Amino acid sequence: MKDGSKCSLEVIYGIFATDQYVWLQLLMIHTFGLKPKQVVAFMPQKCLHSSHKYFIVQNENSGANSLLHLDSDYKRSTYEPALDFAKKNGGYIRDRKYTPEKAVRHLRLFVLERAFYSMQYDTQSL
After folding, report:
1. Would the pTM count as exceeding 0.85?
2. Which residues have CB under 8 Å from 7's CB, separation 6+?
3. Residue 7 has pLDDT above 70, yes or no
4. Structural domain total, the chain
5. In this structure, what DSSP letter does residue 48 have?
6. Do the Cβ atoms of 68 and 59 come closer than 8 Å?
7. What is the rounded average pLDDT of the residues 65-88?
8. Range of the domain at 110
9. What percent of the chain stands above pLDDT 90?
10. Which residues, including other chains, have CB under 8 Å from residue 62's CB and lie 6 or more apart?
11. Above 50 in pLDDT, residue 1?
12. Are 52 and 70 in contact (CB under 8 A)?
């Protein structure tokens, strides 16, 4: 039986190696509480305030803007890779071959696929 922490790291590295778009999207969802529709439409360079202390995200339901603060090293260390990645990818952190709707579907299917794999792995180790 494998150590649980090793299995978790393998899954995380597997996501990065398999799909860097999904890895970065999940990181942004986890860190800032973004919704899938927000993260696939997200353009880090356009949303970042000139002070570099916060960024602006539009609420998908109401259309109101929300300020998300970059008030910790962890948040800044998550946002910086998103900025770098977006600079190389036309401003987005999604695969540009996907429309926003298809990118959300891709993200959800990828996560479900990984969860299913993880559940199979857990039952085999019992």
Report:
1. no
2. 121
3. no
4. 1
5. B
6. no
7. 90
8. 4-124
9. 26
10. none
11. no
12. yes
